């Protein structure tokens, strides 16, 4: 009722000061962006909407969600199971075992990252939205209702005073005393209601103001949580990078993993003494005699450092550019690399081929 009268212009509106309005605007902005960041972080950590709904239901039922295996762990398990079928002693089987173990480690690192991020970042944001913000909204609604009551009291007092002034301008000599007495009593009651309404409004405005000023503390808290989220991400990607580097090294050491021709066993003194099987037979292909083809050479960027296993290979430094090409009889996992006057075999997995 009060709100309708204000909308129709029959009641004056009590304005809040500029500082208070700024506090409310800042609080609304904080709520809106916190909600967007929270929702998108949820999607980042768990892209599967069905899984998010399941976790939400478990949370509402106050039950712990069952532990979910990550996609990386599942892939790793499949690879290792396949290796048992293909034969763990074969080049493909032994490689599947190593890659599968790496995928399981990556999956475990991902699960730990998800758990850490949920605790250190998602939970504080959700606590604000479901706790502090609900309290602020409740107190703001109460303040608005009290403001409408205050406006109505102001309007009643104004009408009572206008009626009293009109009566004073045109007195009725036979009924002056009783009419003035009633009008004065009406104005007095309206003034009392206004004082009570003003007191209640001022008290509620102060409570609401203190809650709104607490948004600054919310920003400080969320800033700390954001730093923790970044640390968790950095630690996760660092672990992933470490696991992948270890996998690259392990694949480079696997015996016969890149053997070109199993019908011609490698029997050079150099490779035998180092326990490394050369991917290209030195008795059929001597690196120093290999010539670059007229066409078919490409530039390649080195992704990781690589230490040559023997004199037929070329050591590499990450980020350098080399010329590469293939020659008949070479394993597809290796190329011939040239850097100036230096030449040697290089593993394809350590390169990014450029067009």
Automatic annotation (TrEMBL):
InterPro entries: AH/BAR_dom_sf (IPR027267), BAR_dom (IPR004148), Endophilin_SH3RF (IPR050384), SH3-like_dom_sf (IPR036028), SH3_domain (IPR001452), SH3GLB_SH3 (IPR028503). Residues 5-260 form the BAR domain. Keywords: Apoptosis, Coiled coil, Cytoplasm, Golgi apparatus, Membrane, Mitochondrion, Mitochondrion outer membrane, SH3 domain. It is a peripheral membrane protein. CDD domains: BAR_Endophilin_B2, SH3_Endophilin_B1. SMART domains: BAR, SH3. This is Endophilin-B1. It comes from Sparus aurata. The gene is SH3GLB2.
């Amino acid at each position: 009722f009060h709100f309708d009268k204000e909308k129709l212009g029959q009641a004056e509106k009590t304005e809040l000061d500029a500082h208070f309005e700024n506090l409310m605007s800042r609080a609304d902005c904080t709520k809106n962006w916190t909600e967007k960041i929270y929702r998108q972080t949820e999607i980042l950590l768990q892209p599967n909407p069905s899984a998010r709904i399941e976790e939400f239901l478990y949370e509402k039922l106050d039950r712990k969600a069952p532990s979910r295996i990550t996609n990386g762990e599942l892939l790793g398990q499949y690879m290792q199971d396949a290796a048992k079928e293909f034969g763990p002693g074969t080049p493909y089987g032994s490689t599947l075992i190593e890659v599968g173990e790496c995928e399981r480690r990556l999956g475990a690192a991902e699960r730990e990252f998800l758990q850490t991020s949920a605790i250190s970042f998602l939970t504080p944001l959700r606590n604000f939205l479901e706790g502090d913000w609900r309290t602020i909204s409740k107190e703001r609604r109460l303040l608005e209702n009290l403001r409408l009551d205050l406006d109505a009291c102001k309007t009643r007092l104004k009408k009572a005073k206008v009626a009293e002034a009109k009566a004073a301008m045109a007195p009725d000599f036979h009924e002056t005393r009783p009419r003035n007495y009633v009008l004065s009593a009406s104005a007095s009651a309206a003034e009392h209601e206004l004082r009570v309404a003003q007191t209640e409004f001022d008290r509620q405005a102060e409570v609401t103001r203190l809650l709104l000023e607490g948004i600054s503390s919310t920003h400080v808290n969320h800033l700390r949580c954001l730093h923790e989220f970044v640390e968790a991400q950095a630690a996760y990607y660092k672990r992933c990078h470490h696991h992948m580097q270890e996998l690259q090294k392990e694949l480079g050491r696997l015996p016969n993993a890149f053997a070109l021709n199993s019908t011609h066993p490698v029997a050079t003194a150099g490779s035998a003494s180092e326990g490394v099987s050369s991917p290209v037979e030195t008795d059929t292909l001597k690196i120093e005699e290999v010539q670059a083809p007229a066409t078919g050479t490409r530039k390649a960027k080195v992704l990781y450092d690589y230490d040559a296993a023997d004199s037929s290979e070329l050591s590499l430094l990450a980020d350098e550019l080399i010329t590469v090409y293939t020659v008949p009889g070479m394993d597809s996992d290796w190329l011939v690399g040239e850097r100036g006057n230096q030449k040697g075999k290089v593993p394809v997995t350590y390169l990014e081929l450029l067009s």
